[in-house]
Amino acid sequence: MKEYYSLDELLNMIEEPNKSSCKKVYLINEVKFELAKGSEFKHQSWIGGYLDHIKEVMNIAVPLYEMLNSRRKQEFSLSDALLVLYLHDLEKAWKYGGNEDEAYDALRFKNNYDFILYQASKHDFKLTTEHLNALKYVHGEGSDYDKKRNVMGTLAGFVHICDIASSRIWHEYPKKSGDTWATNE
Fold this sequence. Notes:
Layout: H1 7-11, H2 18-28, H3 30-35, H4 49-71, H5 78-87, H6 91-97, H7 100-107, H8 112-122, H9 129-137, H10 154-169
Helix pairs in contact: 4-5, 4-10, 5-10, 6-7, 9-10
C-alpha cells in the first residue's frame, strides 16, 4: 500500500457520480484551491495550506478506515468518507484563495455548511442523508449537542476524527521537505 496519495489518486477512490463532480470543482477553481490557506491561524495557515489540509485529511482517512473496517464493518464506505472530507472546508478556497468578490460569495452564507450545499447543488453532487449529516457535524455537534442521543452519525464521527488529527495534532503538516510521511509528489 502506498503511504501518501496525491489528490488525483484520492479523488479516483470516490465513486461516481461524485468523483466527476469533485474533479470538476477542482478544475474550475484550481487557482483558488492552490492559493488558499487552510485556516487564518490554527492549521495549515500558509498559502496552499487549504489543499495540503484536504489531501492530509483524505490521506489520514485511508489507513484509518482500513484499520477500523478490518475490526468492525463500517456503515459507510471509504468513498463516502473521502467525499465528505474533500467538501468539508470548501468555503475556505473562496474565503482565502479568491478575490474580494469570491470571498464575499463564501461569507454571505450563514455558515460553511450552507455554502457547501450551494456548491454541491451547482455541481451535481449526489449527497445522501449520511453525507449531509457528516458535512454538518464534521467540526463537532456544537449547539446541537444532545445528551440523550447521538447527533453525529458514524460517518460524521469518522470524518471528525480525520479533521481533528490534521488540524490539531498535525496542524503544521505536511512539510514540504523532511516529512516522515512522504508526500510522493
